[in-house]
Structure formats: structure tokens, C-alpha cells
Amino acid sequence: MSKKGRIIMGAILVALVAAVIVIWATSSLMGGAQQISRTEFERYVENAQFYTLDEKGERVPHIVDGKIVSTVKYDENGKPDANGSYAELGGGYRVNEKNEIVRDVTDANGKTSEVALKVIWRVKTDAYQYTGADASGRDRYYCFGPSAYGVESWDSETFKTWQGYGVVLEHGNPNAGSWVSTVFSVLMIVAVGVVFFLIIRSSMGGSGKIMSFAKTKARVSTNIKVRFDDVAGAEEEKVELAEVVEFLRHPKKFSDLGARIPKGVLLVGPPGTGKTLFAKAVAGEAGVPFFSVSGSDFVEMYVGVGASRVRDLFDMAKKNQPCIIFIDEIDAVGRHRGAGLGGGNDEREQTLNQILVQMDGFESNEGVIVMAATNRADILDPALMRPGRFDRQIFVNLPDVKGREQILKVHARNKPIATDVNFKTVARITAGFSGADLANLLNEAAILAARADKKFIGNLELYEGVNKVLMGPQKKSRVVTESDKRITAYHEAGHAIVAKLCPECDPVQEVSIIPRGNAAGYTMTRPDNDDAHMTKNKILDFICMALGGRVAEELVIKDITTGASNDLERVTEMTKRMVTEWGMSEKLGLVTYGSNSQTVFLGKDMETHNAYSDDTAKAIDDEMHAIIEAAHSRAVKLLTENRSVLDNMARILIERETIYSEEVDMLMEGKSYAEVLKFMDEQDQKHSDNPFKKFEAEKDGSSSAETAEPETATTANGGSAKTAPESEGKDTDNENVSRETKPDDKD
């Protein structure tokens, strides 16, 4: 808001406060009238009976036999009676020389003064308020009582008696309302209108820019510091984008050969993989202006505003060419047309139409390169994806082990790292982490080091940072009952033992019953490499391992708990995809079911449609049930045969809370409880400062799998390409500590 606007706003607020004070004072003082009780009000009205009218029509005291008496006669019960006697005024009242009824009052100083008899000569009723005026006609007193607007009030004995005393009765208009409330309402309407106008005026950039809401909200940066060296773990993507940089630097080199640089580059990948960082790096390397805008910035409640902002954005870009326009989260405005309830006049579709025209229409935008980022390329409009608009799609995948090591080194540039830290080992145990996850890991480690008043970030902080990013902070202070601890210990031991006995399961890295996040415990498995595919046998072993916790409860506790809800959810999802998407069911064959089940918000139809009959749906359910039951029976057999190992592992977990791969291997080899505890004591002393040492001696799994088809690679990661803890907890509805990458997990 400008200085002038602030002055106007301040003046309005001061005026409002002053008006409220005046209204409050006026209402409180009631024009100077004094609030009294109803009893006093009636007595003052009844005092009018001690006055009468003389020959001139003036009020004078009613005196009989030298005494001040009432004008009305009363019987022995105090009721008016023509045959009764006059009521004498007591209290020491007399008539002074001004012919007024007064009495002498002496104050604390001994000074005597006259005090007149208080008399109300006019009563005005307004709803439940009664106002009384004295002989001068000025309102002096008021009180509250029953409403006088009823028909029966006209025949009220009280009112008739008062009128007999010579008191005048007045009734206010009950529908007139209070002038105070009217004035206050008008002032509030005016104030709200002025404030609303100033807010709109300020948001539009002042009085001279009332229509500026149709202008683009793009942020322009001309000196980007980010370079390709700041982006690690994606060498192939750098090569693709290097051509764009070269064109922006030397466009004549390409035009002389008749080459046309891609008009648009679409960066596609999971959240946190560095798509926005890549766009900044391109602008920084090329040294050209960088226009950044979000897809949601185009959409407004007014139809046509988004299209106007698109035109304004490209007009600005043409004036600064060569340049880069970066649209983040383009799926907010570039979704498939015809999906939704807005029809052809939908504001989002109008905006998309304008983007299509600007990117490849009648006007040419040479020197303007459009870059966009999304993690939902499947829902974008086909017209937006065709050559001539987004000519090139670059898939930014999750980094492999070498890429993770490079990313860790990039993010560690401005952090004091201890000399014994080996990022290669850290990269090996963080399979499936995105660049954002790795940056968060180092940040959490830095916070932990600062909390411990350390000067350098060491291995202890990095190891805890890995677990914190995966599963949340430890909750050692949570009070866990012995019963819950025993159930959790057997549950996690069941996961670990089945994982060791299933040949295709990833190696067990850590088993713990310390609560983290929403999980009461976890079993963490770590893949040896970055395989992009998952075989049927590996998925079946994963399902069996996931059911190991529930089976352990059945065998030992002789009951089942809610702790396996997350396990059952993932087992059901994995089994369903085996049957309906991956063609891994011998009964149903090599057919996918459900590929056409798209909702209105994701792309095509107003309703979802099943691409199979009810009989096929039943067959799918039966096949899923058979797969899960077979895995359950297998887990029961494995744990029954290794019951002694299960008991020993649970006993050690109850006592030590956390065990690692070496202890799990020793238990599986048949080592005794005492031998494992002794080994753990030795390992704690040996690896107290560097928990990564236990992984450094293992085989280096840095070789990554070949790049597969994007959908297949993502699906393969759906099992446990990322370190995936098996969790249990009481609050099972909110439990989701798994960090595995699932094909339908879209941001």
C-alpha cells in the first residue's frame, strides 16, 4: 500500500473509532438521564399527586389544613377511595417561598440546603425502557420494565392512576428503530466499502493500474548464479540441455545449417529430482533472462484473465529475446481438454488454448525457449506435447548410486563435514532417495550436529539423518507398555526372519522397536543395487515378508493386532497390480485390467469404466486371494520351522531395541542369546563413532541397472528400490512410513 493509501486508511480508522466513542457515550449517558430502579421511578411518578392546579393552571402544592397531602383519597388498605382520606406527605417536606415542596438537608460540613421533591411529570415508553421528565420537560430518569406496547397496557390500572396524578404518558414508535444503530450501520458500510476499495487498489498496483490483474505474474531474473556444476546425478540430462544453451549463446551456428532448436523442453520426473534446478542452470549457463511462473498463476476466477497473462508473458519475452520462459507445474493449466465440468468456456482451457497459439501459432517466437516441469506428463493435452511445441521431453529420473554420491558432495559444499565421512557409503544405503531427499538428509544432519554443539557434521549425524528422512525422528521418550513392546518385537522379528529366508528379498539392514513417526517399530531392508525391474519371484517374496509380522503375532501372541494394517495395504496393492497390470497371473493370462479406469479429474470421461465383466472381477478377487493365502501359508511354515530364532530375536529386541544385519545373520546361524549380546557390546564400542563401518566392508553395489522404459522402471521401483521399512503402529489408519516409490504416487 502506498503512503497516501496508508494515510487514508489511518484517517478512516480514526474516524470510525471516534464515531464509536461518540455513539457509546450518547447511548450510555442517555442525554444526561440517570438510570434508577423501577421502585424509585414509580415513587417519583407518585409524587405528582402532591401537586394540584391553581386557577391559572399552574402546579402548586396541594395543602389541606396546613398539611401537604395527596390529591387522591385512599382507604385503609391504600387503595383509591372517594370516601377515604388524603395521604399526608412525610419526610419533613415543606413549602418554601417559591411555592415548591422541599426539605432541609444538612451535609457533612454542617451546611443546610433545600432539596426539592423529585417528581416525574411525563413518562415516555420505548420498548422495555421508561424515561421520565421533570417540570422543565427535560429527561431526568430512566428505568427498564415490562413492554407497554400491549393492548392491555391502555387499560392498565397503573397507567390510569398515573394519569389521574396529572402525569402525561407518551409511547414511542416500536418500528422506528434506534438512530444510534442506524448511524453505526451506515458508518460500517462506508468503512467496509472504503477498505475493500483500498485493498483492491493496492493489489492492482495503484489507481493507474486498475487492470493490472491481467498482466503476467512472471518473475524475471537476469543474473542466475546456478550452473550445470550445481546439478549432479543427471549427466545425460545435462547433455540434452547443453544444446539449448549452445543455441542461446550462438544461434547463428544452428541457423546457418537450417537447424531449428526445440521450441519447448518438457522436464518430466518424480518430485524432488531437480527439474526446476535444471531450468535455472540452463539460464545461468546461457546468461539470458529467465522468466519463471507457476501454472496456477495463469488461472483466475475471471474468464480470459489467464489468456491475457499468457499473451503478456510472451510479449515481455519477445522484448528480451533470447530468453527462457519456465512454467513450473504446467499440469495445473495444461491438462487434457474436455476433462471436467467447465466445457469449452472453462478458464483453464482458454488459458491452454492461448499457450498453444503462442508456442506454435501464426506468430513466431524465435529466440524464446519455453521450458516446463511436471510429474504428471500422462494427463497433459496431446496438442501441447506434439512436435513444434514441446519438441523434446527429458525424463529426470531418481539418481543412481553414483549420482547420489555427487549430489551429496554438491550439497555438502557449504557445510563443515568431518574428515572420516565417506559419501560413497552414504550413497549406497540411500537407494531411492531423490535430490531433495539427499539435501534434506544433510540439513537434518547439520541440525543434529548444531544441537549437540559440534563443529563438524559426522557419521553419527548422517546416519541418524538417513533414518529421520526415511521414518521420522525417534520417540524414545514415548511410554511403551511391556505388552506392546513384546508384540512389536515379535512382529518385527517375523518380518526380518522371513526376509532372510526368502532369497529374493533385499538384505535386512536394521530392525528396531523404537517408535519413529507413526510407526511403533520397523524392519529396514536395503537393496544391493539400483535394479529398475522387479521379477515375479521378488514380488512374491516381498508379499511373504510383509506378512511375516502378522504371522508372528498369530503364532506367538495367539491373536492378531492392528499393527499390520500398513503391511496388508501394501500387500493388497502389490497383489492387485500383479494380477491386473503386470500379467503375472497364470489364471488370467497376459491381459491388463483397469487401464481405462480414469476419473473425470485425471483425464477423459465423466465416470470410471471397468474394462472387464463381473465374472472377471470375481476371478481377479479370487486370484488375489489365492496369491495372498499362498504367501501367508509360506510365512507360517518358515516361522514355525524357525520358532527358536524368532524367540531369540524378539528377546534381544526387547532388551536392546535395535539390531543390525550382523546380529540378524548370527541369529539365523543359530547363535545363542548370550553370544549375540556379547557381539553387540563389542560392535557398539567398535562402531560407536561411525555406524557406517558395518556397511563399508560389504560388496560395493554401485553398478546401476540399464535404463528401462519409464513406466516399467517406475513399476519395478514399486517394490523396494528405495530403503523401505516395514512398520507397525497402533494408529494404523495414519501409518505410512514406507519410502518406496510407487507408480501411482504423483505429486
Characterise the protein shown here.
- It is built from 24 helices and 23 strands.
- The protein is elongated.
- A hairpin with an 8-residue loop joins strand 20 (508-512) and strand 21 (521-525).
- The two termini are 36 Å apart.
- The strands form 6 sheets. It has a 6-stranded mixed beta sheet with strand order 14-16-17-18-15-19. The chain has a 5-stranded mixed beta sheet with strand order 1-12-11-10-13, covered by helices on one side. Strands 22-20-21-23 form a 4-stranded antiparallel beta sheet.
- Helices cover 42% and strands 14% of the residues.
- With 747 residues, the protein is of the alpha/beta class.
Concise summary:
By secondary structure, this protein is an alpha/beta fold. 42% of the residues lie in helices and 14% in strands. The protein has 24 helices and 23 strands.
